[in-house]
Specification:
176 residues, alpha/beta, Rossmann fold, 8-stranded mixed beta sheet, 5 helices, binds adenosine-5'-triphosphate, binds magnesium ion
Length: 176
């Protein structure tokens, strides 16, 4: 991989600006690079992980989720669940076993949660979101996690998306 970005084969590679154990800063130059990064990122996850995606409208949270889903072999196109709060996708165990090392058997679900339209913790509770977070055999990806307030799990992974210009995004990754 070319660590300064640029071409590697036919795919351009996202740029890693900072890499320390609990934090990384990355820039991507287009949506495809964000998806490429997501496909690498998903390999670091374990079942029960909660991935919180912060960033303004259009920052790239759903685009990232699409890449993450592709990375674990989900064939469905991931749509923004804005009006549905939560959608789940079955992850094919055979594809995933080498990725999520803790999984021995059973089904794994990817939950894509978008809290943008929720107005209160009661909304979030009634949608059943909290029951999903951290549950064994799930990976949860949450857009607008700030809406969780006190319900935000302590153990989580945060990604902060910043729009630099039309096609450039800075992504800060922190593990708690
Ligand atoms: N480097 C990039 N990374 C991600 N998306 C990019 C990038 N450059 C351009 N884009 C475009 O920005 C848009 C990001 O939209 P996306 O739906 O992913 O945002 P979002 O953060 O989920 O917004 P919302 O809060 O409305 O759900 C897409 O149209 C995508 O093609
Ligand atoms: Mg979105």
């Amino acid at each position: 991989m070319d660590s300064r970005g640029g071409k590697s084969g036919r795919e351009t590679i996202y740029e890693v600006i900072v890499f320390i154990e609990y934090m990384q800063v990355i820039t991507t130059k287009n949506a495809k690079e964000t998806k490429t990064f997501a496909k690498e990122f998903v390999k670091t996850l374990k079942v029960g992980d909660v991935v919180c995606l912060f960033g303004e409208l259009g920052a790239g949270k759903t685009t990232f989720t699409q890449g993450l889903a592709e990375g674990v072999g989900i064939a469905h196109r991931i749509m923004s669940p804005t009006f549905i709060i939560m959608r789940s996708y079955k992850i094919d165990n055979e594809i995933v076993s080498p990725v999520f090392e803790l999984v021995r058997n059973g089904e794994i679900q990817l939950y894509h949660i978008d809290l943008y339209r929720t107005e209160s913790e009661a909304d979030i509770q009634s949608a059943g979101v909290v029951d999903i977070l951290g549950k064994p055999n799930t990976i949860a990806v949450v857009e607008w996690p700030e809406k969780l307030g006190d319900l935000l799990p302590q153990k989580r992974i945060e990604l902060h998306f910043e729009r630099i210009d039309d096609d450039t995004r800075k992504i800060i990754l922190k593990r708690f």
